[in-house]
Design goal:
It is a single chain. The chain is of the alpha+beta class. It has four domains: 97 residues, no CATH class; 129 residues, no CATH class; 85 residues, Tick-borne Encephalitis virus Glycoprotein, domain 1; 138 residues, no CATH class. Helix content is 34%, strand content 32%. It contains eight helices and 18 strands. Strand 10 and strand 11 form a beta hairpin. The longest helix has 30 residues. The relative contact order is 0.13.
């Protein structure tokens, strides 16, 4: 159906099919650019710099071989801009082209059933039909199928409501809703999703998740035998030349140099050009040098190891010293400094997010195919302890069978040796969105196809 000519020109432009095709083309090109950029940048840097932003600057060099040092950049709309305009285009086109044809009682029934369908879709997306704590023996296939069934049932209810309101156009209207859900679920994921790693030694426990994409500078003070006081400065504030002062900080912190990815080597002559910046601590025995950011195509999927040179001063302005802190040795080396008679453990480490529960590793198993070193399966038997919710139970986590608890999902991702497990911890409130969107689109397309097929068959029978 064509939109009325009486519509203002801006609305006609926003609802036009030309805009849809243009935006899809821009999205394809942005995807190509983001893929090529991963040759020299990390996957998370590309995701934030290209797709989860309003605009981006694309270097020309990514379209040429690395040996050709092509300079220059050009501006381009980011994923948020393209996706946002697609959503606006879809909503306005939907409002213009599809009119409610129901009247009277049919309209009331349509509105009620549509509201019920939207409510069910919301509950499915929010995960109200999944178990709070789960890691069962059922195959992953059945769990995914169960989610699709929930989404399909909600979509069927919504289709009935649309049929009362829009008649034979109900399938196309439902299809549009599926695309909208897909776009909105990605927005929710971009804004709220969290991902990290929990590493546990067999017989040990952990109550925090490590964010592999960011670091933090921490001052740790022992309060007593069981408690520590930690003051953290996030990586986003460690900008070169910036000086931080806060009532919770024991001193002033000036960032002299920050490396997103680095390695530690033997120190050079402090008096040499470009020599060591540190005047105390680890920096007297080692020097940090810049390394390229780990690329998204790195076969080993390593993580960046940031380092920082910081100058510490008392609140009165007296210089304490310049220190080198690095995530390379954060777990093996403690930089003990004394400020106003109080000792602090100073270190740059990967960001930690502490949880109100503990995961204890009871047993880790690494099974191999007979006669080979190839892993056939690896699993972790863990004990989940959450005093606030009065939860204390044992659960088994293995490949494709994660633990779900408190809105978070714990995947068995890797291991170190035969006694250390690595769990990937993901929190994503929009994780059900794509499942639901697929079923909504499938239901809408199926109805439209069957309706068109029935109409065609009736014509053939009449002729």
């Amino acid at each position: 159906m064509n939109e009325p000519r009486t519509l203002p020109a801006p609305l006609r432009a926003l609802a036009s099919l030309r805009l849809t095709v243009t935006l899809l083309g821009l999205g394809i090109f942005l995807t190509l650019a983001g893929t090529l950029a991963q040759r020299e940048a990390g996957i998370w840097s590309v995701l934030d710099g290209y797709f989860r932003t309003v605009y981006t600057l694309i270097p020309l060099r990514i379209f040429f071989p690395s040996s050709m040092h092509v300079p220059g950049v050009f501006p381009f709309p980011g994923g948020f801009a393209i996706g946002g305009l697609l959503l606006v285009n879809l909503v306005i086109a939907h409002a213009i082209r599809f009119k409610v044809i129901a009247t009277g009682r049919s309209k009331v029934v349509g509105v009620v059933v549509t509201a019920l369908g939207l409510g069910l879709l919301s509950l499915v997306i929010l995960g109200y039909f999944t178990q709070e704590v789960s890691a069962t023996e059922n195959a992953a296939f059945w769990r995914v199928l169960w989610r699709l069934i929930h989404g399909g049932l909600a979509a069927a209810v919504l289709l009935v409501g649309f049929y009362f309101l829009f008649g034979r156009q109900a399938g196309i209207v439902l299809l549009h809703c599926g695309v909208m859900i897909m776009l909105l679920s990605e927005l929710i994921t971009a804004l709220h999703a969290q991902e990290g790693q929990m590493r546990i030694q067999e017989g040990g426990q952990s109550n925090y998740v490590t964010d592999l994409r960011s670091s933090e500078l921490v001052f740790i003070r022992d309060v007593n035998a069981e408690e520590e006081e930690i003051v953290s400065i996030p990586q986003s504030l460690l900008k070169e030349g910036a000086t931080l002062s806060h009532e919770y900080l024991p001193c002033r912190v000036e960032t002299l140099k920050f490396f997103v990815n680095s390695e530690l080597t033997r120190t050079v002559d402090p008096g040499a050009p470009g020599g060591n910046l540190a005047t105390k601590g680890l920096g007297l025995r080692a020097i940090a040098t810049q390394r390229p950011e780990v690329s998204g195509v790195d076969p080993n999927q390593r993580v960046d190891t940031p380092s920082v040179y910081i100058k510490l001063s008392t609140q009165r302005g007296e210089v304490i010293g310049t220190y080198l802190c690095s995530t390379v040795i954060a777990d093996q080396f403690s930089e003990i400094i004394e400020i106003d008679g109080v000792e602090y453990d100073l270190r740059l480490r990967l960001k930690r997010v502490y949880k109100p529960y503990e995961i204890h590793l009871v047993e880790f198993r690494h099974d191999k195919y007979i006669g080979t070193e190839t892993p056939s399966n690896y699993s972790s038997e863990v004990r989940l302890v959450d005093p606030d919710r009065q939860v204390d139970r044992k659960i088994k986590i293995w490949m494709n069978n994660p633990l779900r608890y408190g809105g978070e999902t714990f995947y068995q991702s890797s291991f170190i040796g035969s006694t250390i497990t690595e769990l990937q911890v993901v929190k994503n409130q929009g994780w059900m969105g794509p499942y639901v969107a697929c079923m909504v689109v499938f239901t809408g397309l199926s109805y439209h196809f069957l309706f068109s097929l029935g109409k065609f068959m009736r014509r053939r029978l009449k002729s």
